[in-house]
Amino acid sequence: QVQLVESGGGSVQAGGSLRLSCAASGTVFSIHAIGWYRQAPGKQRELVASINRSLSTDYADSVKGRFTISRDNAKKTVYLQMNSLKSEDTAVYYCNTVLRGWAWGQGTQVTVSS
Questions:
Q1: What DSSP state is assigned to residue 26?
Q2: pLDDT at position 73 over 90
Q3: What is the DSSP letter of 32?
Q4: What residues contact 18, with CB distance under 8 A and at least 6 apart?
Q5: Of 39, 43, 41, 36, nearest in space to 20 by CA
Q6: Contact in structure between 59 and 6 (CB atoms under 8 Å)
Q7: Which end of the chain has fewer CB atoms surrounding its CB within 10 Å, N or C?
């Protein structure tokens, strides 16, 4: 049973930065392409960044140039560095495989005030 624990969220002003972490347990972490997702109130959960086993990354247009995803396979952890935050980045952030194959964690709330 895979368990995901997201952390690092908080409340910041527009233009600020946050670094999110997602720790996984109970899986062979390194073989999976992992993504960061977010869900804003009243909206569907969307993939905003992903990183595969070769460390190639991909980003949604809305966060490109502002967010950076990385991973530490030894720690079974994926990170999301978020810079130049905007109010529209306000959401609960989750991690999962790019196929959404694991049970979702509790997420971490990011609130950006303008």
A1: S
A2: yes
A3: S
A4: 8, 9, 10, 12, 82, 85, 110
A5: 36
A6: no
A7: N
